[in-house]
Amino acid sequence: MNARQENSQLLTKTKLLKRLNPYVMKDGFQSLRMDDIAKYMDVSRATMYKYFSSKEEVVEGIVGLYEDYIKELVLQPAGRDDLAIGERFLKLFEQSILLVGNMTDVFQKDLQAAYPDLHERLMEALHGRDQEAAAFYREGIDSGYFNPVNEKLIVLQDNLLLREIVDAKYLLLNGVSLEQILHDYFSFKKTLLFKPEHMAAIDDARIEPVIDYIVKKFNRML
């Protein structure tokens, strides 16, 4: 197989995995049969087997998608001025919500139970991402923009609290919309982190399209 064919095959595999991903993230994969996988990929069994020889290979492909996605989450632009810090804060806010919302508990639990090695790979990628986020928070603290709080606790807060508040059950029980809870969390996070004299680094109007995009994306997943 030449390089062009390999690239074409990789693109097709990625497309098929992305079709399957919403179903796996919603319901897990423990009960999935290869027939179900072909159905959700919208291809015949014969076509599916051209690209994936087993269920494990499919799950490994899903994990690979998330590893690649996590590696692509960069916090640009670099720098220590109001514009750079503000832009990076907004970008991290958006990325943190999407990452928590896209990678569900049911998928992670199934992965840990059935394929612990793949689960460990995914956890390593997430740990690397947490370290990058913590480094940004530490940079903001050291440069005087952020209040002196423990950067590791901020990352933990994002991982645990965000996962709770973007859950449909939480929103229903508390009678609040996803849009409102994201606005509230943004205000909470901004007040927690930024010193009063540096609040101007954040243009609140910039968060509106970010939240709008996130809400629409989550609604498509329901």
Summary, kept brief:
The chain has 222 residues and is mainly α.
> How would you classify the helix and strand content by structural class?
mainly alpha
Low-confidence stretches: none
Give the overall form.
elongated
Strand percent estimate: under 5%
- How many domains? The number is 2
Helix/strand order, N-terminal first: HHHHHHHHHHH
How many DSSP H or I helices? 11
C-alpha Rg (nearest Å): 20 Å
How many individual β-strands? Answer: 0
Q: What is the distance, rounded to the nearest whole angstrom, between the alpha carbons of the first and last residues?
A: 40 Å
- Helix content class: over 70%
Sheet of most strands:
none
The average pLDDT value, as a whole number, equals 89
Structure in words:
- It is built from 11 helices and no strands.
- By secondary structure, the chain is mainly alpha-helical.
- The chain has 2 domains: 3-54, Arc Repressor Mutant, subunit A (Orthogonal Bundle), CATH 1.10.10; 73-221, no CATH class.
- The radius of gyration is 20 Å and the shape is elongated.
Detail the topology: elements first, then pairings:
Elements: H1 3-27, H2 34-41, H3 45-51, H4 55-71, H5 82-102, H6 105-114, H7 116-142, H8 151-165, H9 168-174, H10 178-193, H11 207-221
Helix pairs in contact: 1-4, 4-7, 5-8, 5-11, 6-7, 7-8, 10-11
